[in-house]
């Protein structure tokens, strides 16, 4: 069967979604006390996100090259920085739009809900549990595995569907636009730099922004006289970052293509083998999407 990855990737996403729902019914007391809670949460994320992906990689026989587990080149730095600011300011604009529509896009993840209020000020442990571990595990699952599995169907298809599956895993219908946009930029970053370490770095710093700075930005936008200035400034910075990111992305893709030609190896940023419609029509994907919609409303 052609494009097996387009069939098996949503199945992997379904498994991860199922495990995530199950842990919602775990008695918080079993996580331990004090700092042990954060260690337990880190282990849970590894069990739910990383180990199923690792087993999947083993079964599918994906290589290190397929998974983009390579050290990025120096030429990727400017692109990665511009991608970071594109994610931050783009997500900020989307959150502003949702706020003005009366929709809260605050992320209350399954894991954060398990942290007792008394431990919420442990900055180091919060950083590890809710910024570092998610950046590593989610990037391996979504930008190493999912992106690789859809790549044969075209770059656009790969980035789009890996971003959708990434959004499904968070069970937050209100913040879905933010997750989807972030997933698009992270997927594009991993694709262009050919390194998941670049997308993981962007993901990590964006998580840190959400954890420690987003509340201050929300406080600013809640004051009517500040709203216009905040939106205008964010829009300008977003457009500048996006322009720089796309320019650097074109340069890197051209460079990768030139190097491939020098080695007499064809550089094709994703062959089209069915493309977008084929990926969407595979039965596993509609089932995954339907499961997301059912579960997200049951959870809410």
Describe the structure.
The chain has 300 residues and is mainly alpha-helical. The protein has one domain (4-299). Helices cover 72% and strands 0% of the residues. The chain contains 11 helices and no strands. The protein has helices spanning 4-23, 36-60, 77-100, 123-150, 155-168, 176-193, 196-212, 214-221, 224-262, 275-281, 284-299. Helix 1 runs antiparallel to helix 4 (123-150). The two termini are 38 Å apart. Residues 261-268 have low confidence and may be disordered.
Describe what is shown at a glance:
By secondary structure, the chain is mainly α. It has helices at 4-23, 36-60, 77-100, 123-150, 155-168, 176-193, 196-212, 214-221, 224-262, 275-281, 284-299. The chain has one domain (4-299).
Helix content: over 70%
From the alpha carbons, calculate the radius of gyration and give it in angstroms.
19 Å
The beta-strand count equals 0
Which structural category fits the helices and strands? mainly alpha
**Strand share of the residues?**
under 5%
Instruction: Provide the domain count.
Output: 1
Mean pLDDT: 86
Number of distinct helices: 11
- Large-scale geometry: globular
Uncertain segments? 261-268
* Main sheet specs: none
- Oligomerization state of this entry? single chain
Order of helices and strands: HHHHHHHHHHH
Straight-line N-to-C gap = 38 Å
């Amino acid at each position: 069967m052609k494009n097996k990855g387009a069939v098996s990737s949503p199945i992997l996403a379904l498994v991860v979604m199922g495990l995530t729902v199950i842990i919602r019914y775990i008695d918080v007391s079993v996580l331990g006390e004090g700092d042990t809670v954060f260690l337990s949460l880190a282990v849970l994320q590894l069990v739910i996100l990383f180990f199923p992906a690792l087993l999947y990689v083993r079964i599918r026989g994906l290589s290190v090259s397929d998974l983009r587990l390579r050290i990025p080149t120096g030429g990727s730095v400017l692109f990665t920085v511009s991608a970071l600011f594109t994610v931050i300011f783009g997500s900020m604009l989307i959150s502003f739009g949702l706020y003005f529509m009366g929709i809260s896009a605050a992320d209350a993840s399954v894991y954060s809900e398990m942290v007792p209020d008394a431990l919420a000020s442990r900055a180091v442990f919060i950083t590890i549990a809710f910024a570092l571990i998610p950046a590593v595990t989610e990037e391996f699952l979504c930008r190493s595995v999912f992106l690789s599995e859809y790549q044969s169907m075209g770059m656009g298809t790969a980035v789009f569907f890996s971003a959708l599956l990434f959004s499904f895993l968070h069970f937050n219908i209100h913040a879905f636009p933010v997750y989807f946009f972030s997933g698009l930029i992270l997927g594009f970053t991993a694709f262009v730099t050919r390194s998941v370490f670049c997308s993981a770095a962007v993901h990590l710093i964006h998580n840190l922004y959400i954890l420690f700075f987003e509340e201050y930005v929300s406080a600013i936008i809640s004051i009517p006289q500040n709203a216009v200035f905040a939106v205008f400034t964010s829009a300008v910075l977003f457009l500048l970052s996006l322009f720089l990111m796309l320019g650097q992305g074109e340069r890197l893709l051209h460079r990768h293509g030139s190097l491939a030609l020098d080695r007499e190896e064809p550089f094709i940023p994703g062959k089209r083998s069915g493309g977008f419609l084929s990926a969407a029509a595979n039965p596993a994907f509609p089932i995954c999407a339907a499961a997301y919609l059912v579960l997200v409303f049951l959870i809410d």
